[in-house]
Amino acid sequence: MDWVELFISAGFWAATLRIAAPLIFGTIGELICERAGVLNLGIEGIMTMGAMAGWMWVFQGGSLWGAVLFAAMVGGMFGLLHAILTVHLGLSQHVSGIGITLLASSLSYFLFRMLLPNTTTPPKITSFQPLDIPFLSDLRFFGEAFFSHTALTYLALAIIPIAIYLLYRTPIGLATRMAGENPVALEAQGINVLMIRTGAVIVGSAMMAIGGAYITISAFDAFFFDMINGRGWICIALVIFASWKPGRALFGALLFAGLDAFQVRAQQLAGGDIPYQFFLMLPYLLSIGAMIIISKRMQYPQALLVPFRRGDRI
Amino acid sequence: MANLKISNVTKKFGPLTANDNVSLEVSEGEVVALLGENGAGKTTLMNILFGHYVADEGEVEIDGIKLPAGSTDAAIRAGLGMVHQHFTLAENMSVLENIMLGTESLWSLKSTVARSRRKLENLSNEYNLHVDPDAGISELSVGERQRVEILKVLYRGARILILDEPTAVLTPAETDQLLANLKMMVAKGMSIIFISHKLHEVLAISDRVTVLRHGAMVGEIETRNADKAILAEMMVGRKVTRPKAEVMEPGSIVLELENINVAGKDKATDLLSNVSLNIRESEIVAIAGVAGNGQRELAELLSGLRPWDSGEFKYRGEVVSKADANEFLKMGFGRIPEDRHHTGTVGEMSVWENLLSENLRKSPFWKFGTLIDFSAHRKKAAELIEQFDIRCSSMDTPARLLSGGNMQKLILARTLTADPKFVLANQPVRGLDEGAIAFVHEQLLAARTNGAGILLISEDLDEIFSIADRVGVIYHGHISQLLNVRKTDIQQIGAMMGGDMKAVA
């Protein structure tokens, strides 16, 4: 009986959306990079940096939306770094990405310590508050589950259709997808492959950073160490799970977030009978299972990980 | 007045001069053939013209206006269109998407899909190039993909069309269709640069032929004054004649396949389906076909690299139970793989190591059962280099530095010195120049005289008709009945390559 109640409680659904939002930003960001042919393993670090930058902006007295823009800008700069290394210099995307993750996370913690050398309890900021939507927020169940969220959560949901439109309905989206499928085709049509890929990595990284900022300025109201806690890696897996399609990425993010919301509640329900670590493991275990099932039908971008060099001997 | 003018173009890649002071003019409505062997610099010249490469010296003018170097976009806007040798299409995308790419401003917020589709349909009808705009590229045949490439160029309003080896991947019937289409475009006022090393096509389509050799222009001739012999000599620089097979009495059956099936990854389609064939001693059996019809799987099967699902595999009367490359080698199989660079040689290893890598465990190259006998090994390598005329600076040169022809000689030397009973020759002359082709054919014919049974997989019908004894056609994993080469002709085999198996008499 308790288990059924869990799924029909508004709190469970609200938590699912809240957990999914940063994953959506990160996954769509990663998806844009990979669609253009560049794997971005810097995501974990860029999200940490975004979390740090967003929080810092507000802590220093800036506005919340200013913080979102600032985080995006900082993320975009790390994206530019990744693009210079992998797109322009053609270095290993794996090595560069891991390097950026290490650099960006350490730099975030370093800046935090520089700013607050002696604090043990991270100071709180005023974060995004739930929007009060007339009529809808007052609905029973639905009001609490789906219409009691912050503006940034609704933005996360809005970027899915925007990403779909841009990727599939505009010339720049076509060029981006082509950069990940066959860059030579772009080159042959007179479009600069390096420019398209660089642009995609910058935009994608900016979105990852917004995902990171969501954690500090919408989900919580402070910055502390290990806050991103592997969310970036989950986004990498979600992109594969989604077969590089934004619509499916939304589904994947909600599924994973639902599992995560479930495990927290299941821990309490199960009491001490099952060690809580088992529940912590559940979402990851099920993600691996899902990946195994879909791996056979995977259609990945043909030119993912393949550097493009202009004027090389063909 | 010349429509297109290339003047004094020079391009170097490191120590290699790919283009040496080349000039070329093309007028409106004219078809100029650019003839030359592989590596003569034809593609490099066109890539400079199209802005993919920047020339070290020289310039390109269209209608008297100089093209900026290294800008493909400018070349396209000036009216140039290029159909590349390797198609520049994305397989996971639709025909329409591939064609629309680059035709709209990147910053426009909306694609004009409906209008583009209408424009494409009008072009298709006007030039008689039909293809479904919504089909994915991966569903299309090679001939259809080429049509998409040509449509792409027409869509952008090209007036000068460059075709780089356009017939290399086509069946004879598709080639005829292409040539007919090109003639129609010329009649509408388009100029064409047709790059090829196939003499009969050049003679059929062009008004004028320009010949490149080792990067330099060696001659120009009006097509009506030319014939095959004249062009061949201009292209190669000397008279070369390919050897022809003498009739020989074949011996007993060396290798026999009976109803062999190899299932695809998804188990729904067969890569090889009920394949039956036999090869006798002192005989060359050719398998003709357009690339991608199961040749690779057949070659892997006969190299011991791919297991089969059902059917019988017999070697000299004995049943072979499983695919085992090492065992096949010991039994006397010789292999000339399709891809010289990746499967034929180990590029970073030296010529002498590559020469004996298949004979490693044979005495006298093996010492105490564990060690390589260096001196015996190197002595044998020196002999082979001499015997097969492998041009390399020393036997310690890494194999990747050899030219295509010399790399193939290395593989031939390694394979034939083991005195194989059966030889698999997969596209043995692809990408080689005339001199090297003649050498490879002589060596294969010599092995045949020595009693070897040879299976030749080839897309080149001239090759098949000059050295093979029997020929079968592979199409969608099926292999036709084997026909006597001396009792069939190119038209019949060509029709079968296009899928018309009924052409089997």
How would you describe what is shown here?
The complex is a heterodimer of chains A (314) and B (505). Helices cover 70% and strands 0% of the residues of chain A. Chain A has helices at 2-8, 10-35, 43-59, 64-88, 93-115, 142-146, 151-169, 171-181, 183-188, 193-219, 231-241, 246-270, 276-294. Chain A has 314 residues and is an all-alpha fold. Chain B folds into three domains: 4-236, Rossmann fold (3-Layer(aba) Sandwich); 254-332 and 420-505, Rossmann fold, CATH 3.40.50; 344-418, no CATH class. Helices cover 33% and strands 25% of the residues of chain B. In chain B, strand 9 (208-213) and strand 10 form a beta hairpin. Chain B is globular and about 70 Å long. Classes of the chains: A mainly alpha (314), B alpha/beta (505). At the A-B interface, helix 8 and helix 9 of A face helix 2 and helix 3 of B.
Compose a concise summary of this entry.
The complex is a heterodimer of chains A (314) and B (505). Chain A has helices at 2-8, 10-35, 43-59, 64-88, 93-115, 142-146, 151-169, 171-181, 183-188, 193-219, 231-241, 246-270, 276-294. With 314 residues, chain A is mainly α.
What order do the helices and strands come in, and which of them pair?
The complex is a heterodimer of chains A (314) and B (505).
Chain A: H1 2-8, H2 10-35, H3 43-59, H4 64-88, H5 93-115, H6 142-146, H7 151-169, H8 171-181, H9 183-188, H10 193-219, H11 231-241, H12 246-270, H13 276-294
Helix pairs in contact in A: 1-12, 2-7, 2-10, 2-11, 2-12, 3-4, 3-5, 3-10, 3-11, 4-5, 4-10, 7-8, 8-10, 11-12, 11-13, 12-13
Chain B: E1 4-13, E2 16-26, E3 31-35, H1 42-49, E4 57-62, E5 65-66, H2 72-77, E6 80-83, H3 95-100, H4 113-127, H5 142-155, E7 160-164, H6 172-187, E8 191-196, H7 199-205, E9 208-213, E10 216-222, H8 228-236, E11 253-263, E12 270-280, E13 283-288, H9 295-303, E14 310-315, E15 318-319, H10 325-331, E16 333-336, H11 340-344, H12 351-355, E17 366-367, E18 371-372, H13 374-387, H14 404-416, E19 422-426, H15 434-449, E20 453-458, H16 461-467, E21 470-475, E22 478-479, E23 483-484, H17 490-497
Parallel strand pairs in B: 3-8, 3-9, 6-7, 7-8, 13-20, 13-21, 16-19, 19-20
Antiparallel strand pairs in B: 1-2, 1-4, 4-5, 9-10, 11-12, 11-14, 14-15, 17-18, 21-22, 21-23
